[in-house]
Amino acid sequence: MSATLRLACLDAEAPPLFSLWTPEHGRTGYEPGVAEALGAELGRPVEWVRVPWVDMIPAVQRGDADAVLCGQGITADRQAQVDFTRPYAIFHEGVLVRRGADIHTPEDLVGRKVAAIENSTNMALVETFTGAVPVAFGPGSDDVYADMLAALLAKDVDAVVDDDVVFVPLGTTHPDYELAFTVQTANKWGIAVAKHRPDTLAELDGALGRLIDSGRLHEVWKEWLPTLDYPFGGSQ
C-alpha cells in the first residue's frame, strides 16, 4: 500500500467546510472531500493530524504531517513559512452580526469590537475597517469559530469576520445572527507544505491540477458548496 497522506487540520465543527472527527465517520465536508479526491488520485490513504489552529504550520515544519489542508489563505506571511499548492478554493469574506444590530457597512463598525482569527486574512480585513476595534481569537482554542460565535452572542464582540463559506449554514433566517455584508476579497486557499519538501509540494500540486482539469474538484464543490459560485470555471 502507498504511504499514508497525513494532513493537518483543526478539529472543529465548521460545516460545510468540515466536521468534527468521529471514529465512525472520520471528517466530512468540502475540505475532507478534496482530501479524499486527492488521496484517490494519488493512490494514498488519508490520515488527519488534528491539532490546534496555531500548530498546523508548525506540525508540517516538524514533519508531524505532510501538509495542511485546513483554511489556509495564501498570504505573504504564510508563504514565508511554507510553500503552497495552486488554490483548491477561492472565497470572499463576510461580516456576521447579531440579528437586528443595524450594521450594514464598514462605516457602521466604527467603535465596534470585531472578532477574527489572529494572523488570518480575516484579521487583515478587520484592520482595514477604519475605527473598528480588532479582537483576535485563536491561541489555545480548541474551536476558535465556536468561540467567536459565542462571544458575538454574549455581546463581548459586535461582529465576526470569516470567509463567506463558514457562514453558509447560518443562512438568512438564523434567529441569533445575520450577515451584515460581504467583501469581495477573493481569498485563495491552498495546501501548505514545508519548504524542505518540494517533492511533496509537486506531488500534491500536480494531483490538484488533475482534479481541476477532470472536473472532479467541481463535483466536490457542488456536493458541499452548492450555493457558492465555483471559482475555477467550467461546468464539467
From TrEMBL:
Protein name: Glutamine-binding protein
Domain Solute-binding protein family 3/N-terminal: 4-228
Gene3D superfamilies: Periplasmic binding protein-like II
The keyword Signal is assigned to this record: yes
Matches recorded under InterPro entries: Solute-binding_3/MltF_N (IPR001638)
CDD domains: PBP2_peptides_like
Keywords: Signal
Record carries keyword Signal: yes
SUPFAM superfamilies membership: Periplasmic binding protein-like II
Database matches in PANTHER family: AMINO-ACID-BINDING PROTEIN YXEM-RELATED (PTHR35936:SF19), MEMBRANE-BOUND LYTIC MUREIN TRANSGLYCOSYLASE F (PTHR35936)
